[in-house]
Amino acid sequence: MRCALGFDGGGTKTDCVLALESSDMRVHAHAGPSNPVRGGFGAALPALRDAGQSALTNAKLTTADVGAVCAGLAGVGQPADAEKMRALLAVEFPQAAIRICTDLDLLLAATPGPAIILVAGTGSAAIGRSASGEVVRIGGHGPMISDEGSAYDIGRRAVITAQREYDRAGKNTPLGERILREMGSIQWPELRKRIQSAPDEVFPRLFSVVAALGDNRDETSQDILRAAALKLASLVATLAERLHLGEARFPLVKTGGMIGRSKYLDAQLHERLRVTLPNGDAKSLDATPAEAAARLALEALHAGVAVGQPK
């Protein structure tokens, strides 16, 4: 029984959906992060392997049954990176046609016609399609030069703000106390060491702290979340201008690990987008990114794409 595997991999987790060629049954599985830019190819491949093997085991299938794979991964926007990942997955699934795209491509594939997708998670980015079919993506270049308004950005800003207040007053604010508690009741010198060695393990994790305090009316946290909403709305506005969407109505989808995690942030982002892009209609995805990847893989399977072709 042949099947297709769809992967949605980012800086926090990997989702996998297994779809059977001759059935509507879907099997879901999850694993750790698989963004090769943030964690390296050596960490990304095991996460994909684990998620795929888990789905296959649950479906009582093996790698020999996999006829097609579509992996939408953050961090493979460059052709060389995409080809490297394709080659690695071709070894894992030797009988399968392999398609590599970005996680943003998956989101757009799940939304037909002119549209904009805003991704607010560990990183931030936006992708859109114009009325003529042109596809443009902006952002998502990593925390050193982009990811404005992301969980990483919010966590970083929270640490800077809380540390600065501790330096000024000699005691922690509620935000500072919650940050240190979240990281294991440590002190600032230890937190700084952790940030220096592994910032990706610190900053995105602190988004939940800022979100919770913001929803409980902590003014400092609300300031940080309000600034993040402005940055994300600006990202979308820049993309809409490049796509020349004009006055026509278009779907505007918000997705990612930050969405729905904070009532205050959601409200701020909704209002900023309403003012900035009044012609954007808030929509939900008809399918998850991993489900969209599985659908693309099934299409390759049904079309009989040659094994190993980088479709």
The value of Rg in angstroms is 20 Å
**Can you tell me the CATH architecture of the largest domain?**
2-Layer Sandwich
CATH-level-4 superfamily name of the largest domain: ATPase, nucleotide binding domain
The neighbouring-strand order within the major sheet is 3-2-1-4-5
Domain count: 2
CATH C-level name of the largest domain: Alpha Beta
Low-confidence stretches: 306-311
User: How do the helices and strands follow one another from N- to C-terminus?
Assistant: EEEHHEHEHEEEHHHHHEHEH
Instruction: Write down the oligomeric state.
Output: single chain
Q: How much of the residues is beta strand, in percent?
A: 15-25%
End-to-end separation: 22 Å
Helix content: 40-55%
Report on this model:
By secondary structure, this protein is of the alpha/beta class. The protein folds into 2 domains: 121 residues, Nucleotidyltransferase, domain 5 (2-Layer Sandwich), CATH 3.30.420; 173 residues, Nucleotidyltransferase, domain 5, CATH 3.30.420.40. Helix content is 46%, strand content 19%. The chain contains 11 helices and 10 strands. The strands form 2 sheets. A 5-stranded mixed β-sheet has the order 3-2-1-4-5. The protein has a 5-stranded mixed β-sheet with strand order 8-7-6-9-10, with helices on both faces. Helix 5 runs antiparallel to helix 9. The chain starts with a strand and ends in an 8-residue tail after the last helix.
